[in-house]
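Backbone shapes recur. Consider a single case.
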Amino acid sequence: MAVITDSAADLPDEELRRLNIHMVPARVNFGDQDYLDKVGLSTAEFYRKLRTELVLPRTSQPPPGDFRRQFEFLLSHHRELVYVGLSRAVSGTLQSAETAAQRCSPGRTHVFDTGNASGGEGLLAMRAAEMAVAGATSAQILEELARLKPLTQTWAMARNISHAVRGGRIPAWAKPLVEWLGLTPLAKVKDSGKLGVVGGLFGQSRLPERYADYVANRVAKGRRYRLVVGHCDAPEDGERLLAALRTRLDVAQGWLVETGSAVGAHAGPGALVVSLQPAD
């Protein structure tokens, strides 16, 4: 059983290698320069360009042909494959995968909509791969993913909304209001699979720790969690956030990763993402 995801999923490199998770890259564009996300353009280089380039980056979904080539290659070595994909509500990536699956081998290719992104998508991909390594069938993997999907939660905190305003995701009038209030917006991936603003933190002191408080107060108590903390070119804040979450939650496994362009292009440098999933 092969497991494949897309580059919108943020997961630790060591787990990607250990579990043999395959990845289809999205496209990242800076002006007239096109790159394959996390392949032709590393995440570190993406943030360097984001801070220095005059043009805003644009991201686009992988075309069906990219998925088809990967699917055909994997099916030449594996009986079946499961694609664990980016939320259909925010991208056409999943539709590209479905188109490729129908043209390739629909009976052996299974497409799962995580309704999530970033670390949430990554956690679900890791769980699928763990089961595949243990010898689970595609039906068992899809059943487990369906169980975990509503339990896998993702929040994001943007220190600076300038990139979201320049990209048209937030209206321009909101920026001076947010700055005047000293507000740091918080968003969450909702049941619809879309990211929506759910609150904010006032002031700039101890933001990672107060963000950890916010998340810890909104998850079920008495459970063990595994979590991914993603940072957008802000490793020190990411480490503080992960450490704070470890003191507030029963963390079975926790990873710090650099969040890719799917979030970074819109949230900008300094943003922090928390994704967690029950570890039972």
